[in-house]
Amino acid sequence: MAKKKNLVLSPVVKWVGGKRQLLNEIIPMIPKKYSTYYEPFLGGGAVLFNLQPKKAVVNDFNGELINVYNVIRDKPEELVENLKIHKKNNTSEYFYAIREYDRDTGLYEKLTSVEKAARIIYLNKTCYNGLYRVNSAGHFNTPYGRYKNPNIVNEPVVKAMSKYFNENDITIKNCDFRDALKGVRKGAFVYLDPPYMPISTSSSFTGYTENGFDADMQIELKKVCDKLNEKGIKFLQSNSDCEFIRELYKEYNIKIVKAKRFVNSKGNSRGEINEVLIYNYEQK
């Protein structure tokens, strides 16, 4: 009998390119049986937390984000208490004071892992559009959002996520996506949700890691997919629907899906756009 899903388990942060509203397209495409689930670009984790595999290797290059997940796994109660302090003090002035921490190296380094995690969740819940963005120096630079009642603490989700991490075989990594897939074997399944190829120069968004993810990195990712395919490992990838990506993956299956993009720095450029799902196996 299949283990029942925890319906409370869901992303604790809003992340650029989050997959919550594409789950009804993605989840049915994931094979029912696999040994280990791999997700090398975890982000907000919408697919992971919906799927809830018992064995998984998940990764993100963003160390701040991975610290959030490690703290949720290891110190959920302390995190909740820290978030309650942020909730109690939440104002525009307080937000900017907390945001400034990463501009003062000495001050930031004195923060505990719990305080760092609470800071990122607080900023994510209260900043404009929930847009995690850092500048070239790695400083969080999204302005205050002025929400009436942001869900800063979200204790049920923190507890559900901690329980999931601790009751299953979940490895959390903070490295390059290629390193995250080292040791992957036949029988595993890999879901790839990289930073998307921009469909125009104005739509480029590389702000949630300091180093961006350009066309050369997309080509590197394609090489990784080819290696997975050679090993007989099934993979599914999300990306933008553009000529570059379609040409790059022309020997694989490509499904076009419509996605509404709400997390955008320019409100007028939100709306329904085409994205692609690329995969190397037959759909049943």
Helical stretch count?
11
Spatial extent as radius of gyration: 19 Å
Spatial sequence of strands, sheet with the most strands: 3-2-1-4-5-7-6
Form type: globular
Helix content: 25-40%
Your description of this structure?
The protein is an alpha/beta fold and 284 residues long. It is built from eleven helices and seven strands. The chain has helices at 23-26, 46-51, 63-74, 76-89, 92-99, 105-110, 113-126, 155-167, 177-180, 215-230, 243-248, and strands at residues 37-39, 55-59, 169-173, 189-192, 234-240, 253-261, 271-279. The protein has a seven-stranded mixed β-sheet with strand order 3-2-1-4-5-7-6, sandwiched between helices. Helix 3 (63-74) crosses helix 8 (155-167), helix 4 (76-89) packs across helix 7 and helix 4 (76-89) runs antiparallel to helix 8.
